[in-house]
């Protein structure tokens, strides 16, 4: 009986580890991004402020790693200039002083976006859906931090993943906010 309980307990722990993201990672959706973040995004994305794309919307999630050393903002950008048949633009930003460092500027990303349990160089792996724009059937790709940045392209070094398990951090653009208001 004790052996059966131990085996079942071990299986539960294995399954829990396979379906969860790294313990202690903190995720929070930002319904009202700061003016500072929005100003950075406007400057980074352009175009000329005299002709802003009023269809541009952002969905922002803040991720802090469990060791407390790294924080990043996962920003999904939608709108006429930022989406095509393959998806929309994904930025991963790291706060640096009073600004941000762009860790990734990836085009043609589809939802959902996942925070994966695996990490590389102290940063969490990010799972994204790749489909359309000539890519059929779609698949899940894993973006891993190489020590300097995440891949900007969904071709290698981004890699295809089998069954991607992780916490969905952006599932829809329903809670997005306008970048130019």
Architecture overview:
This protein is α+β, with helices and mostly antiparallel strands and 181 residues long. The protein has one domain. The chain has helices at 2-19, 35-45; strands spanning 26-30, 57-64, 71-78, 83-84, 87-96, 99-120, 123-132, 135-143, 159-161, 166-170, 177-178. Strands 1, 2, 3, 4, 5, 6, 7, 8, 9, 10 and 11 form an eleven-stranded antiparallel sheet that branches. A hairpin with a 2-residue loop joins strand 5 (87-96) and strand 6. The longest helix is centred in the first third of the chain and has 18 residues, at 2-19. It starts with a helix and ends with a strand.
Keywords:
16% helix
Percent of sequence in beta strands: over 45%
Q: Describe the biggest sheet?
A: 11 strands, antiparallel
> How many separate domains make up the residues?
1
Q: What's the pLDDT, averaged over the residues?
A: 79
Which structural class should the secondary elements be placed in? alpha+beta
